[in-house]
């Protein structure tokens, strides 16, 4: 997650990152996803920001993507119209529509039941969409910027393994709060805390 900045060229924003990736790595830019939200900071000297950008990169064209896992249902009216469109595959149409790369999902407010105390915590709905579409049950999800630990929570719910790390020692405390919230909601919160990644990567 990040923002495109124009006022500070040394900020390490997405423009810098994308340029570096294209020039210095073999990663391919598959999609730029826009997270749009209605509420945000006010502004008087420029247009108030109401979105964040996410970049989806892949090492090759042979990447995993499960669109069916995140399709959005049509309204009854729109479904009837879509089924009449001969350009669309009726089997896929019945499954639901592509959510596109613009996602309107509200930010977490201070009273949200998802809150665990992290200042930039992302909504479960957003993380769930990424996990469900870009990984499969039983696969390993790596999160090198664990933050609040929401990725770990979603992986438990969706049946994925998850390896998380963060420079902030408090990150594990945030994740433990997620586990407590899951228990209070009577959700499956069982997980295995490991000290070595060799179990997943055959490292001896």
TrEMBL record:
<dbReference type="InterPro" id="IPR002941">
    <property type="entry name" value="DNA_methylase_N4/N6"/>
</dbReference>
<dbReference type="GO" id="GO:0032259">
    <property type="term" value="P:methylation"/>
</dbReference>
<keyword id="KW-0949">S-adenosyl-L-methionine</keyword>
<keyword id="KW-0808">Transferase</keyword>
<dbReference type="InterPro" id="IPR002295">
    <property type="entry name" value="N4/N6-MTase_EcoPI_Mod-like"/>
</dbReference>
<dbReference type="GO" id="GO:0003677">
    <property type="term" value="F:DNA binding"/>
</dbReference>
<protein>
    <recommendedName>
        <fullName>site-specific DNA-methyltransferase (adenine-specific)</fullName>
        <ecNumber>2.1.1.72</ecNumber>
    </recommendedName>
</protein>
<dbReference type="InterPro" id="IPR029063">
    <property type="entry name" value="SAM-dependent_MTases_sf"/>
</dbReference>
<dbReference type="GO" id="GO:0008170">
    <property type="term" value="F:N-methyltransferase activity"/>
</dbReference>
<dbReference type="GO" id="GO:0009007">
    <property type="term" value="F:site-specific DNA-methyltransferase (adenine-specific) activity"/>
</dbReference>
<keyword id="KW-0489">Methyltransferase</keyword>
<dbReference type="Pfam" id="PF01555">
    <property type="entry name" value="N6_N4_Mtase"/>
</dbReference>
<feature type="domain" description="DNA methylase N-4/N-6">
    <location>
        <begin position="17"/>
        <end position="175"/>
    </location>
</feature>
